[in-house]
């Protein structure tokens, strides 16, 4: 019965690997989405597919007959984290770029892992089996009892517990860094765009959080339980990676439609999140402590900003950006951003959507217009029904339907 289950599991691994190779080919050849970022995603799905082939060989007992399979496919764990992290970096970058020397260092542990592991290929198969753990080794201080040299015993130890701990730590750290980067990016786009539904990458952030959660559970089961739960969690992680790949194909280039001269949200646009010790006012004050715009000038600027936005009804433009507003005012974008932050306590996104909400409120109460909710949303400058409901509830405190019901009694 167990042999049947093992065979079935090996077949499932091969089927999943085939799907992974297909997805890798799609990512490689597709012209959709962010091509540069998808290169990293392509390599990631390829590595996970190769991992499935390795699992299938191990489950079917082929690794014991041909340890070269495990030796060739083993060094991949240290590439998972860097590829996910660099995918997030590239996806939020304003223009495609070559891999910098600093970024190349992310792959150094993986390359070292390859050098150490593939050096075993010159050894006899039974020696490879001992070193890579297919046959258990008791580290009793005696090398001769295993027929291994001391240097080979050291390599065996490095490729066993030591490598496992480092690999677990590497993936967890890079997943954490990726989530942190996306969180900073989310803050940045709120200060620069009035419509973010297509560029907020919330899907990716949720996927990474799920992946990190499942991975931590996998570490626990791998360390303590070691059973079928290990395979269940492993398949869950693979499912999320493949889902990331297919979703990555659909994600449009974030900055493709923007003017090349338009500045990109940078780290300087990011403000620290308020804590128990720091209020929002303190955060804004700290952010602009060295700015050339003083409080008096900031107050004057917000009056000019409001005048332009209200008279020209700029909020009705769904794709309005901070740079476009600054251009109309003949002001540097960071001056406009500072005035909005300091004088209203809002970011650019909420500032513009508050005007859109006011316009929607008027349209909802216009009996002659008799517009549907989605028509009101579009007429007020929103790009989708979901964005409209979210903004309306935030600024009006109720849903559009509740607001209409309360005021048309």
From TrEMBL:
PROSITE patterns, alphabetized: HTH_ARAC_FAMILY_2
UniProt KW keywords: DNA-binding, Membrane, Transcription, Transcription regulation, Transmembrane, Transmembrane helix
Entry GO MF terms: DNA-binding transcription factor activity; sequence-specific DNA binding
Keyword rRNA processing assigned: no
Domain HTH araC/xylS-type per the UniProt entry, residue ranges: 299-406
Keyword match Cell membrane: no
A Pfam family annotated for this UniProt entry: HTH_18
Region (Disordered): 258-279
Bilayer-crossing regions: 6-28, 40-57, 77-93, 105-123, 165-182, 203-220, 232-249
Name the UniProt record assigns to this protein: AraC family transcriptional regulator
Organism per entry: Neptunomonas marina
